[in-house]
Amino acid sequence: GEEHYNCISALHKSMRGSDENASLYWLARMLEGGEDPLYVARRLVRFASEDIGLADPLALTQAVAAYQGCHFIGMPECEVILAQCVVYFARAPKSIEVYKAYGNVKECLRMHTGPLPPVPLHLRNAPTRLMKNLGYGKGYKYNPMYKEPVEQDYLPEELKGTDFFKERKT
In this structure, are 86 and 6 located in the same domain? Predict the structure, then answer.
């Protein structure tokens, strides 16, 4: 019932608040109450990207490993795997930078009126002669061939200069 959602919310908020003791409590309360460990593991995968993100890129690896471990061995043995992951997340630095930036991109797409801007010609794949003749791929600079970063636009002209990490584009 509702307590299912209340407990997962409490677990998330305890990890987000870096409280390892409360995080373990809410995890144990869920598992000892019969919660599906794979449900908890799936929520941890989401938490790894949403709340920890680039502050600790290995968090996602930890979460996926915990999910796989739970899938392989099940309860009750997987409880310690989840406990390790929950404590790791509670202790981890937090960053919502990617989460917010992706939200800004989604808002940009939702607020756009009319057809979406076309992919710039230089970024298009040109597997046929016709496409090459139409200018697909023309002028594209293949970065690995250069010693220094290259000057090249990757967004459509209408979005040139947009930084989804700093602003909301509408």
Answer: yes
